[in-house]
Amino acid sequence: MYSNLGNFNDEMLNQSTALNDVSNTYKAFVEAIIPRTPRLAVIYGRIQYYGALDLYTDEYVIMSLNSLLIPLAIPVAEIINVAAAQLVYSTGENRLQNYSRASTWELFFELLPIERLQAISLLLLRNVSLIEIPVPFQNNQGNILSITMLLIRL
């Protein structure tokens, strides 16, 4: 009766890990776009301290993408990580050693904030290999540009 329980637990763990990776991607994305600014808070007041993570913007972005006709949070996170991988690979072999412990899903999260913005700029400039992009964005630079612009607006 409970013979498949081990497989069920493994599947739940894999889903939990995947959701955590997707969540970390969006946390890194919103943090790069709107970081905390404690130095500005000292000058202009407490309201300038808070960043996008403090306001749960990552959760809002995921919810917004998943409320579309086709849930897009996972494929868009994959696009962001593909851009991060291409940024890392384009900088040479020495740079890759720093990311040996990171899977493709963790690359964007592992980048410095300035590097995250550079990865996003690859998407905006249409400098990402379309072969690695997931469906429904594969081989469609226009859709990639549109979804990247939507992410920034959200």
From the structure above, extract its key features.
0% strand, 154 residues, mainly alpha, disordered N terminus
Can you characterise this structure?
There is one protein chain. The protein is mainly α and 154 residues long. Helices cover 63% and strands 0% of the residues. The protein has eight helices and no strands. It has helices spanning 5-33, 38-44, 57-66, 73-90, 93-96, 107-110, 113-124, 141-153. α1 (5-33) crosses α7. The chain is globular.
Q: Short description, anyone?
A:
With 154 residues, the chain is mostly helical. It contains eight helices and no strands. Helix 1 (5-33) crosses helix 3 (57-66), helix 1 (5-33) packs across helix 7 and helix 4 (73-90) crosses helix 7 (113-124).
Give the overall shape, derived from the CA principal axes. Answer: globular
Tell me the Rg in angstroms. Answer: 17 Å
Percent in strands = under 5%
Major sheet characteristics: none
Separation, N- and C-terminal Cα atoms: 47 Å
- Structure summary, number of beta strands: 0
Roughly how much helix do the residues carry, as a percent range? 55-70%
How many distinct helices? 8
The average pLDDT score comes to 82
Indicate the structural class.
mainly alpha
Uncertain segments are 1-13
The topology string of helices and strands comes to: HHHHHHHH
